Amino acid sequence: MKNVIIMFTIVLALTLATKAEYIAFDNGKPSIYYFNSVMDRLLADDFTVTQDTILTKGCFWTMEDHILLWDGTLEYFIFANASGMPGTIISSGNGQNVVKNATGRVTPGGDEYKYYFEFGTPIDLDAGETYWFGLHMDADYTGWPYHILWSNSIAGLGYNCYESLGGTLDNWVNVGNQQAFYLEAVPEPGTACLLVMGSLALVKRNRQRP
């Protein structure tokens, strides 16, 4: 019976550790005064994580004027840091299971929307490092530049956002503001191991009690 309890404890700890998603970085909610296009350019804002983690999902806000219909493209990028600007691409792909909801706010850039999506492949990141989260939302880079605008955040942290017109990645320009987004993650497997060890220690202590 005791072995059953131990195995159940280990499985439970591993399940909680690998399934418990949390907000790994939050760059603040949207401001209604500033915004940048994500159709004719690629935008990227920096972030960091406080523990080794695996990114799984992203969330951001837009302002949209409905001049054109969104074609459903949502490209994401995770860049390494290169002296305070986006560097080498660590991971990129198309957002999966994208959910788009109107917030009900009308802004100078159009109606506000909140997007929530999953990364195509979980992204393993190290604690304390600076990374860059990039977005582009058009099948190519010829879309109307004022249709989909990534909302800014006045509470943003770190460096200002950079943009690459046409997405060529060799023409980064500091746009002078921060973007509104947050990123979700699950702990690294090492965290799960710590939970298991803690669980085993607890079981051992209980077994030693008279």
β content, as a range? over 45%
Number of domains: 1
* Radius of gyration (Å): 21 Å
Name the helix and strand elements from N-terminus to C-terminus, one letter apiece: HEEEEEEEEEEEEEH
Number of helices: 2
pLDDT below 50 for ≥5 consecutive residues: which ranges?
4-18, 191-205
CATH structural class = Mainly Beta
The shape is globular
Residue-averaged pLDDT? 85
How helical, in percent, are the residues? 10-25%
Distance between the termini: 17 Å
- The number of strands is 13
In terms of topology, how is this protein built?
Elements (H helix, E strand, L loop, with lengths): L1 H18 L2 E5 L8 E3 L3 E8 L4 E12 L10 E7 L4 E9 L1 E12 L2 E16 L4 E7 L11 E4 L10 E4 L7 E2 L6 E7 L1 H20 L2
Antiparallel strand pairs: 1-13, 2-10, 3-9, 3-11, 4-8, 4-10, 4-13, 5-6, 5-9, 7-8, 11-12
Helix pairs in contact: 1-2
Model description:
It is built from two helices and 13 strands, in the order αβββββββββββββα. It has 210 residues and is an alpha+beta fold. The protein has a single domain (22-187), classed as Jelly Rolls (Sandwich). The strands form two sheets. Strands 1, 2, 4, 7, 8, 10 and 13 form a seven-stranded antiparallel sheet that branches. A hairpin with a 7-residue loop joins strand 11 and strand 12. The longest helix has 20 residues, at 189-208. The chain is globular and about 45 Å long.
List keywords for this structure.
about 210 residues, alpha+beta, Jelly Rolls, seven-stranded antiparallel sheet
Task: Briefly say what this structure is.
By secondary structure, the protein is α+β, with helices and mostly antiparallel strands. Helices cover 18% and strands 46% of the residues. A hairpin with a 7-residue loop joins strand 11 and strand 12 (173-174).
